Amino acid sequence: MVRIVFSVTLEYHVAAELARGELEILLEEYEPEPRIVHALFARQKSAVPKVRVFIDFLVELFASISADMAGRKRR
Fold first, then answer.
1. DSSP, residue by residue, 11-28
2. Global pTM exceeds 0.70
3. Most buried of 2, 46, 63, 68, CB within 10 angstroms?
4. Which residues of the chain are modeled with pLDDT < 70?
5. Contact yes or no for 64/11 (Cβ under 8 A)
6. How many CA atoms are closer than 13 Å to the CA of 60, on its beta-carbon side?
């Protein structure tokens, strides 16, 4: 059985599937330009360590996704 599904989603949500070749981008010429993501938090002496860990996680996550997407677009 062949299943074809069309969806509009953010590329980083399906980056792993794209890298594995499980999904492919259709109508690539209509993709919107990349957007900048900001993570804001209040700097205080009593800052919650969980917030810093979460920010570090986001930085690492988006850096790896960005590298994966850049590699895919060069092919």
1. GGGGHHHHHHTS---SSG
2. no
3. 68
4. 45-47, 68-75
5. no
6. 6
